[in-house]
Amino acid sequence: MTTIDNGVNVQALLDAREVLEGAPEAAQFTWRASSKWTTGVHSTTTIQNYFGLGEEQSHKTETAFDADHPEIFAAEDNGITPIEYLLVGLASCLTAGVASVAQNRGIQLRSVESTVEGNHDIRGMLGVDSDVRNGFNDIKVTFTIDADASKDEIEALVAQSQKRSAVFDAISNPTEVAVAVA
Amino acid sequence: MLERGEIANSWRRERWDSLRLLTPNWQCGLPGVPYKGPDPDGYMTTAEVVELIDRFATRARVRVRTGTNVTSVRRTDDGYQLTTSDGEIRSRTVVIASGACNHPTVPGLAQAVPAEVEQLTPLGYRSPAQLPEGGVLVVGASATGVQLAAELRRSGRPVTLSVGEHVRLPRTYRGRDVLWWMDASGVWDQRYDELDDLRRARQLPSPQLVGTPERATLDLNALAAIGVELVGRCAAVRDGRALFSGGLRNVCSLADLKMRRLLGVFDEWARAEGLDAEVDPPERGAPTDVARSPRLQLDLRSGEIRSIVWATGFRPDYRWLDVPVIDPKGRLRHDGGVVDSPGLYALGLPVLRRRKSTFIHGIEDDAREVIHHLTGSLAAERSAYASPSTARA
């Protein structure tokens, strides 16, 4: 068998799984973002630090994300809309999953592309119709994958990636959200 | 042999009225008691299973102390001390054969269900007549869940089925019972120490199968065809509303893919064995048809749902076992039925030694190996005692 390489260190992930099975407290992570209003509906959110493996951790650099709304919303379009960040999260999480599962199953990937479409009836958030929800009506993800594998094997990669995806779970299942004023 | 009730107690008292075995009759023999009836391809009712076990008990000439409930098993210097409803017993060895399905597993979110909705578990369920008229939410789509959903739907009730990860199987494949394939192809004989992921194999939900005279398939497509509404896994009950996962499509894809992979294994085996001419041509069936927008919530206060059946699995009861061999998840720590305490053994647990371990015909091979270990260790102890003690001094 030729060695396949999708650039994922699966052994490290498998080792982590084994270690954390006996140390569930180390598996407790807290991801953090800090946001600051600029003006209008424009804000900047930065991310650098998080907690995990029992201590404070830090990304190599701080990343800033501008969120705004497009001009057709009478805004300045200084960044993507907040709900589009959900699409970024979902696409990148599922893609990471596909690469990891493929590596673990010995499948060489050549290209993985996806489009994510979130259908959104904005009457909900505008308060036009209280029967319409604020968020997405539904989300559709379409993968195009070129790999040394059968169609069923590729579909299984995508299915397993969804099964283990943090963002897919966070979007498709209810989560308790507490918002407070400090 | 200690039995808390009568012989075949759980088959007499803890099964619903219409239940039949998943395994065809020809597969349901016990050592010395093969099936000899007129319907080898049929499926036994619970009364027939009771009769089979009774017949086996008589034939095996085992002394069964019925009505003897074990309330405690403790380790002693040279074995175990058992406290039972019929007195104390000392024993060098103990084989735990109390099963994996003593208690229904009900998720914590059941506590948030409004009081006006009746709730029950498969162990308490007997027939549709027991439930109030009106809509039923069945949570869980393994063998129990799909069978109860179908039966309740046929009783005229609107049924919603909450579906998480599941195992899809056709009742027959290429003209043979799917469990014939499991058996003949060797899948069922796969050993616990040869499986890639034993933990996953042991946690596998029971397959979506039912034993009916028609040998009908009871997958999600069959349920949808009789009007059962499919929704995702029940993720929360909040403010009187049941919230379902938006991941229904993916759990169906996973089940379809795994079924196709298994059928591929059967096909490969049939080709290798030169059986292609004897059985029907390969087929794959339609993928699971998921509605475009499955409902994501149900208002449990609206009156639409009058009862909930929690078909969310079972767990063993080891409260009587005062030996530290239970893992944090409540499972017995054992290696192929050899428990992590000298002289303690187990039988009849999922994939104990083989994939077929929890099926009636699956017990024989497991029992032989476990008892071989048991008698071997007793003999070793005896010879150790027999050797002169000065040798160790």
Describe the structure.
The complex is a heterodimer of chains A (182) and B (393). Chain A is an alpha+beta fold and 182 residues long. Chain A has 2 domains: 29-80, no CATH class; 81-182, K homology (KH) domain (GMP Synthetase, Chain A, domain 3, 2-Layer Sandwich). Chain A is built from 5 helices and 6 strands; from the N terminus they run H-E-E-E-E-H-E-H-E-H-H. In chain A, the strands form 2 sheets. In chain A, strands 1, 2, 3 and 4 form a 4-stranded antiparallel β-sheet that branches. A two-stranded antiparallel sheet of chain A has the order 5-6. In chain A, strand 3 and strand 4 (55-67) form a beta hairpin. The longest helix of chain A is centred in the middle third of the chain and has 23 residues, at 82-104. The mean pLDDT of chain A is 95. Chain B is an alpha/beta fold. Chain B is built from 8 helices and 22 strands. In chain B, the strands form 8 sheets. Chain B has a 5-stranded parallel β-sheet. The longest helix of chain B has 26 residues, at 248-273. Chains A and B meet through helix 4 and helix 5 of A and strand 14 and helix 7 of B.
Compact summary:
With 182 residues, chain A is α+β, with helices and mostly antiparallel strands.
CATH level-four homologous superfamily name of the largest domain in chain B: FAD/NAD(P)-binding domain
Counting structural domains of chain B, the number is 2
What is the fold-level CATH name, i.e. the topology of the largest domain in chain B? FAD/NAD(P)-binding domain
CATH homology-level superfamily of the largest domain in chain A: K homology (KH) domain
CATH class of the largest domain in chain B: Alpha Beta
CA distance, first residue to last residue of chain A: 58 Å
Q: What's the CATH class label of the largest domain in chain A?
A: Alpha Beta
Largest sheet features of chain A: 4 strands, antiparallel
Helical proportion of chain B?
25-40%
Which percent range describes the beta-strand content of chain B?
15-25%
According to DSSP, the number of beta strands of chain A is 6
Helix content of chain A: 25-40%
Query: What is the correct CATH architecture of the largest domain in chain A?
Result: 2-Layer Sandwich
Approximately how much beta-strand content do the residues of chain A carry?
A: 25-35%
